UniProtKB/TrEMBL annotation:
EC number: 5.3.1.23
SUPFAM superfamilies: NagB/RpiA/CoA transferase-like
One of the record's GO molecular function terms: S-methyl-5-thioribose-1-phosphate isomerase activity
Biological process, per Gene Ontology: L-methionine salvage from methylthioadenosine
Name of this chain's protein: Methylthioribose-1-phosphate isomerase
Signal peptide: none
Length: 369
């Protein structure tokens, strides 16, 4: 998407053919910094530290991490080490495991000298596929926005509420939840986005607002607890969120607080959609609440906040009493019954096993192997 009028992706391969560059999302919105990944350990640290984040981008970064590992050492032992190092970085986003399985199964039969080139080629394919998938999600989600727009008065805007960052920064390009928004905006549709701040890491306030602003999309940042009030007053036409994992039965695991948005939407008759690429579907899991591992992150994310002072300094301050314990669950699970539809690259689906199975039979076969 666009940053100051220039097209850029969240991750890319440098002209030297082996160095991987990525936007350091920890530094946004106040500093735009590009980090270079030159080894597998760099890729693992980028995922673990949330230099990169968002399920699709985590998968693409992991794929490039394997390629970097193969460039240094293409032995079976090195492949296994790379897999183990990368799979341990984040537990919730299923795209990480999917991408690593794709890389390992493709590389294992190859002779050692052929592995590095093949790994870079497959990683690039995974990145390009992500871009195409997200554009497909955008096209199907655009139809939902246009249907609502058709009920509005001329020039009246469609109001979308988002949670966390499911934008192009969370993918290679376009985003999942934001892809329909960008397509609508680029077609001249009057659209406005309510951006949840998304505590504790504030991905909405720092990332979604940053990218929407740079692309020229009208938006307003709101505290996380404001969404229900807006829905009660008919100020939200639809909710579109992303997801880190969707179960075979349609349960949705996404950033903590998503469940509460779904409850508010259900109570107020507001359509609640989840945008996802097919690699985010986990056909090996049925009950999201019981089976999906929920990452618990460091207490400092809740206890401290980082921002820019009036004189331009970037400072981190503590906002919680020194002796107060902190719990920091990174995700929650929204039951399928609260989901209006799943926006995928193959259409808008019901959040149930039958619809997912019919749309993605090849994923079921892969899960059974």
């Amino acid at each position: 998407m666009k940053v100051d009028g220039r097209h850029i992706r969240s991750i890319w391969l440098e002209p030297d053919g082996h160095t991987v560059s990525a936007i350091d999302q920890r530094r946004l919105p106040h500093q735009f910094v590009v980090a270079q990944l030159t080894g597998c350990a760099d890729a693992a640290d980028a995922i673990r530290s949330m230099l990169v984040r968002g399920a699709p981008l985590i998968g693409a970064t992991a794929a490039y991490g394997v390629a970097l590992a193969m460039r240094a050492d293409s032995s079976d032992a090195a492949l296994d080490r790379a897999y183990s190092m990368l799979i341990a970085t984040r537990p919730t986003a299923i795209n990480l495991k999917w991408a690593l399985e794709e890389m390992r199964s493709m590389l294992r039969p190859l002779s050692s000298p052929d592995r590095a080139a093949a790994a870079y080629s497959r990683a690039a394919e995974i990145a390009e596929d992500d871009v195409a998938i997200n554009r497909g999600i955008g096209q199907h989600g655009l139809a939902l926005i246009e249907k609502i727009a058709a009920t509005k008065k001329p020039g009246e805007r469609v109001n979308v509420l988002t949670h966390c960052n499911a934008g192009w920064l969370a993918t290679v390009d376009w985003g999942t939840a934001t892809a329909p928004i960008y397509l609508a905006h680029d077609r001249g549709q009057a659209i406005h986005v309510w951006v949840d701040e998304t505590r504790p890491r504030n991905q909405g306030a720092s990332l979604t607002a940053w990218e929407l602003g740079h692309h020229g999309v009208a938006h307003t940042v709101i505290p996380d607890n404001t969404g229900g009030h807006l829905m009660q007053h008919r100020m939200v036409d639809l909710v579109i969120v992303g997801t880190d994992r969707v179960t075979a039965s349609g349960d949705v695991c996404n950033k903590i607080g998503t469940y509460l948005k779904a409850l508010a939407a259900h109570d107020n008759g507001v359509p609640f959609y989840v945008a996802l690429p097919s690699p985010t579907i986990d056909f090996s899991v049925d009950d999201g609440i019981a089976e999906i591992p929920i990452e618990q992150r460091a207490a400092e994310e809740v206890a401290t906040m980082t921002g820019r002072t009036a004189d331009g300094r970037i400072e981190t301050v503590r906002i919680v009493p020194d002796n107060s314990p902190v719990a920091n669950y990174g995700f929650d699970v929204t039951p399928a019954r609260l989901v209006t539809g799943l926006i995928t690259e193959r259409g808008v689906l019901k959040a149930d096993r039958a619809a997912l199975s019919a749309a993605f039979p090849e994923r079921i076969a892969a899960a059974a192997e």
